[in-house]
Predict the structure.
Amino acid sequence: MTERPESSENARLGDAGMPDVPHPDDAGHRPATTPPARLPSSVHIPPRPSAPPTSALPQVRPRPQVRPNRKPASGAAQFGKLLSARTAQLRASKPGAGAQELGRTLWAHAQRLGLAKVGATLAAVVVLGLVIWWLTALGAAKQQPAAGTSPAPAGSASSASPAPRGALPLEGVNPMDFRLGDCFKDFDPNAAASTVVACDTGHSAQLVAIESYAASDAYPGRDPLKQKALDACKSALLTDKSSDYLLSYKLAYPSSSSWGTGDRRVDCYVAVDTGNVIKESLLP
């Protein structure tokens, strides 16, 4: 860029503004000076610019910086991450423990999301409820014992716990309350009740086998019932002391009328014909 002269109009005025050279004959005389010419009023001298002009130069506009469009994580995404982290911690701990603490933490986070994210918060709360329900049910299932036991198969003795008894001897015991191994004084298999005594005292009979029919079975008839009771007697294991006594089998099984009332029990006794001479248990 070139600078303009301070006053380019002076060149068009000839010698105006230049001092006269004295003539040799005028020595000693002060030369008359010509006053400087005045510039025409119509001529305007622009002031010197404070900075060089840039209109003739190409203008380069700075390229705007493009920032990556990073959207902040939505409230639902933040809540989901927190839910996943808390759920993983809760699964690693004892089932059912810490569920209230998890609920308080997630609820506080949901409140911070603001009213604009109420929908996402409600959805997350529903998921939280399902997780807590699942963990609670899982813990209860692990701690709860089996609700029931399978029924005893037909032909085996009942596994139900017997009712507590008083001190022996016990008089007037119903045959349906007899227990395997009971010893009886003055035993009569046709009696409506019997006296149960300790087996180390004198007695005449002992219950050595019990078989049962299923509740859904139809009445099989007298002969099959009798045969089932006899088979139970033959399969009963007795001690060697049984050979010291003259024993016989006594059978008890349901009648058609007692079958209708739910009686499905078949019993086998070993007994002596006379007296309460047995003074020990004959079962191993």
Summary: The longest strand covers residues 205-212. Helices lie at 75-92, 99-112, 118-143, 222-235, 256-260.
